[in-house]
């Protein structure tokens, strides 16, 4: 049986037994918060539990390293929608120790693309179109650098109101211990 077949079989039983009922909520975050975090599998259940969040409490936006790569990309759009449409009153950027984006090697990743069948023609076409792999696949030296970068981009975004606090945290992916790196209640000059 395939992975998708297993999922579909489980899902049918899940719905028939009404196991979804304990997760019922609406689309508006109860705690009025949007959280940009990493897609790391260790954080899927740990992060909400470590923050005392239940289903429906927050809007979670996930990507590699919790890094905003462009001010008008999809992750930033999600943050803006969380604020302006969903009523989020605060934004948390939560990176983590041991992140795979730490010192990501773009050259090695391009070699993996090739190994997985991406042709040199495709890669050179992208390069000729202005997509620089070393920039597109750039990570960071320390996880707090990624958090600071994303917080800065959100704070400076022309569509984020000044009254929205933007905080930066690191979480330990084993214990859930949080470190508050950037206090969004203080101005940049106070930190």
From TrEMBL:
Q: What class of enzyme is it?
A: lyase
Co-factor(s) = Zn(2+)
InterPro entries named in the record: Carbonic_anhydrase (IPR001765), Carbonic_anhydrase_sf (IPR036874)
- What domain of life does the native source organism fall in? Bacteria
A Pfam family annotated for this UniProt entry: Pro_CA
Keyword annotations for this protein, in alphabetical order, are: Metal-binding, Zinc
Q: Does the keyword Zinc apply?
A: yes
Catalyzed reaction equations? hydrogencarbonate + H(+) = CO2 + H2O
- Does the entry feature the keyword Metal-binding, yes or no? yes
Enzyme nomenclature, EC number: 4.2.1.1
The record's family statement is: Belongs to the beta-class carbonic anhydrase family.
PANTHER family attached to this UniProt entry: CARBON DISULFIDE HYDROLASE, CARBONIC ANHYDRASE
Task: Please identify the protein, giving its name as recorded.
Answer: carbonic anhydrase
Please tell me the species this chain comes from.
Cohnella boryungensis
